[in-house]
Amino acid sequence: MTALLEIRGARREFVTPEGGRLAALDGVDLDVGANEFVTLLGPSGCGKTTLLRAVSGFETLDGGTIRLDGADIAALPPFRRPVNTVFQSYALFGHMTVARNVGYALEVQGVPRATYEAEVAAALEKVGLSGLGGRKPSQLSGGQRQRVALARAIIAKPRLLLLDEPLSALDRNLRQQMQIELKALQHRLGIAFVFVTHDQEEALTMSDRIVVMRAGRIEQIGTPRDIYRQPKNRFVAEFIGETNLFPVLVERIEGATALARTDAGVVLAIPAEGRRAGERVTAILRPTDLALAGEGIRGTVTRAVYLGADLHLFVQPAAGGPEISVTTRDVASLPATGETVHLAHDPARVHLLAEA
Amino acid sequence: MRNPLGWAALTLFSLLFFAFIYAPLFVIVGYSFNANPVNMMIWEGFTLDWYTGLFGLTERSMDANSRAAYIESTDQMLAALRNSLFVAVFTTTIATVMGTATAIALARFRFRGRRLYDGFLMLPMMMPDIVLGIGLLIFFVTLGMQLSLLTIIIGHCTFLTSYVFIIVQARMAGLDPALEEASADLGASEWVTLRKVLLPQLAPGIMGGALLAFVISMDDLVITYFVSGTGDTTLPVFIFGMIRRGVKPEINAIATLLILASVAIAALGLWLRSRKTD
């Protein structure tokens, strides 16, 4: 399978006000398939928006190539690139009606009147805004404006749609609803989405693949499950979801499991495969991988947060070291703050990083 | 919490403040209807003669000589008004186009000396009119240009471009750059983006700048006085000359009409600004 979008060695440097140089993109390679929902995820300043803008044409690269359908588009001005963008601010044209906003791409192309009107109506229907074409953007709610921006960007039938943190201005409920709708729309349209966000939950919900970026580089590319369960390094592990990190020394191998100990003295059972005694590794346990039990890591509950379906506990290990975060379903026996508990885990759920 | 005495004092102060600002205007409007042709301070009855007189429609009995002189001065005044309108229309058009183009260029392009350019554009506004007037006069004379309506238009454009620039620049600064990017993203060339997105978005600022330029051009006395030729004079210069020969009642009528026109233009400006644009 050849990729729809093919980015190789993308580099872009900015000159900081102090006169220094900052690599917004530091050699980025990325492939996006024809029907894929890819999310660029990372903290602000990691280069995700720069990468998106390089594809849309609003940033020029200092080096590297961008190919769309095999054709190099790096030299094309934005208005000649067959990709469309949903902007963070929506960037709706306030002096035009909703319908004219949506039909703008066709208006510019000079599409015949009848086709134009049918297409605008169809696009409005796709985003659930039929009947609102005569309004001005200022008369719409935030969620509706978001849909107008979406309809406007898909009307020209791009093969690739770029979305620059489009949901960041919406409230939580609406954002979750839009996440589901966006994913459904992408499926229905059968086109590729490249979605930029700093919200890891958003990335996990919608993406086929997540690209985790930091300081102009790609840290890891993978499915949401890969990224969550098998992070390649500490940065990815800590950026995606809540994580307990245990830098440990492997003490001895006992069949399929090995015993490892933190410097403070917390003992963990980890998968033995590939391990040898005396080795230093970092063990990763998600809060959901730990459970209250009769034995295991002994500690004191410092804080208990009731979340409805789940119970979230912070446990200070008796041996010392940082607090351990635990999410459990077992709400039959609510541990009180100050109570002593034991935390058990399945060794197979432990993910190991080679770095200590 | 409310101190009644304080409120009464504040109300009184406000009334006095507005009286201070508007009393001279009301006096002029009142006098323009006074039938006394010699001393306008003494009320002699209501008349519209000064208005009809402005347009050569007067029925006042006078001898042939003074009637001829009268009509001549009325004709001169109407000619001055025509000149003023001519100058204002051309100046407004040129200053609006140049000011708008400059504001867009300075906001959207980075080039060396941009800040300096910005500062130099402010300068004509800060410059005392009299300095600008003398400077322009010497400049035109040095070039050997005949003082005419053309020199007035050039003179007005030098500083009115700055006014338009400032107003459009303010609007430009409040504009989301993503609007132009969205337009380009949807396939519009720069020219189409300018026409369909940028200019409509800037329209309130451009209209505001144009109205201001028009009003200032119509009103300018000092600079125009220096750069107008002997034959072609504008209304403010004409009125200024008229007053030096003694205040005629017609001046009150002209002033009243000018007040009306200014209010109309200001109202138009406010209405344009209040129209929702986003």
TrEMBL record, chain A:
The molecular function terms in GO held by this entry are: ATP binding
Record InterPro entries: AAA+_ATPase, ABC_SmlMolc_Importer, ABC_transporter-like_ATP-bd, ABC_transporter-like_CS, Mo/tungstate-bd_C_term_dom, P-loop_NTPase, PotA-like, Transp-assoc_OB_typ2
Q: What keywords are annotated for this sequence in UniProt?
A: ATP-binding, Cell membrane, Membrane, Nucleotide-binding, Translocase, Transport
- SUPFAM superfamilies noted in UniProt: MOP-like, P-loop containing nucleoside triphosphate hydrolases
Its UniProt entry gives the catalysed reaction(s) as: ATP + H2O + polyamine-[polyamine-binding protein]Side 1 = ADP + phosphate + polyamineSide 2 + [polyamine-binding protein]Side 1
> A Pfam family in this protein?
ABC_tran
- The record's EC number reads 7.6.2.11
Where does the sequence pass through the membrane? none
Q: Which domain of life is it from?
A: Bacteria
Q: What class of enzyme is it?
A: translocase
> Can you give the residue ranges of the ABC transporter domain?
10-240
Tell me, what does this protein do in biology?
Part of the ABC transporter complex PotABCD involved in spermidine/putrescine import. Responsible for energy coupling to the transport system.
Family stated for the protein in its record: Belongs to the ABC transporter superfamily. Spermidine/putrescine importer (TC 3.A.1.11.1) family.
The subunit structure is: The complex is composed of two ATP-binding proteins (PotA), two transmembrane proteins (PotB and PotC) and a solute-binding protein (PotD).
**What is the name of the protein in this document?**
Spermidine/putrescine import ATP-binding protein PotA
Q: Which organism is it from?
A: Paragemmobacter amnigenus
Automatic annotation (TrEMBL), chain B:
Protein location: Cell inner membrane; Cell membrane
Keywords, ordered alphabetically: Cell inner membrane, Cell membrane, Membrane, Transmembrane, Transmembrane helix, Transport
Q: Where are the transmembrane segments?
A: 7-33, 85-107, 119-141, 147-168, 197-216, 222-241, 253-272
Coarsely, its chief localization is: membrane
How does the protein associate with the membrane? Multi-pass membrane protein
Xref: PROSITE patterns:
ABC_TM1
Q: Which domain of life is it from?
A: Bacteria
**Residue intervals of the ABC transmembrane type-1 domain:** 81-269
Q: What does this protein do?
A: Required for the activity of the bacterial periplasmic transport system of putrescine and spermidine.
Q: Which family does it belong to?
A: Belongs to the binding-protein-dependent transport system permease family. CysTW subfamily.
Q: What is this protein called?
A: Spermidine/putrescine transport system permease protein PotC
Organism (species): Paragemmobacter amnigenus
